[in-house]
Amino acid sequence: MTAIDPHLDEVRDAIATASWFAAVGEPWTAADRSDAESYILALRLGALHVAVARDWHDAARITQDTGWSTAWWDAEERQRHALMADAERRFDRHAVMTALSTVMATAGELVHGRAALAATRAGIADPALTRVAAGAATMACHQVALAMIAQAPQTHPFHVKFRLFASGRWPLCVVGDSLYVL
User: Fold this and answer.
1) Quick one: average pLDDT of 157-166?
2) Where are the beta strands (DSSP E) in the chain?
């Protein structure tokens, strides 16, 4: 057992118990809204508001919008680079990369199955959209694993984003002045 293993156990448990895509299209809870707003604040993207995507069809349209925010992408990348530097100060780079690869492999198959199931239940037969959803969820697993390895606080945007996914939501992207969440 390495010093990084307890962090991996926590991530694996969180991935296994998450309600992947189960709340998509369902009414929002106060916790959903709070997490979405906290995610926006944590990324320091300025005056954005939360916009709720209605259904999988709406999600397909939003994720294909060419006007998505590069500032949002850049903000997440800055967070990722900072966490990677923190993680590498605590652990050997090889151990960090191996841990993250393990998480990605563990999460990938599980979340793809859950995305496909949720889409099918909603009457959607779009393998490309299912792959986009699963890819976003798998990336959130990678991000939260990195946040846990680096011992980032629960207020870190990657923890908050993962909570949205774990509660059954899908944070889609930022377009214009809106963070869209399904």
Assistant:
1) 97
2) 49-52, 171-175, 178-181
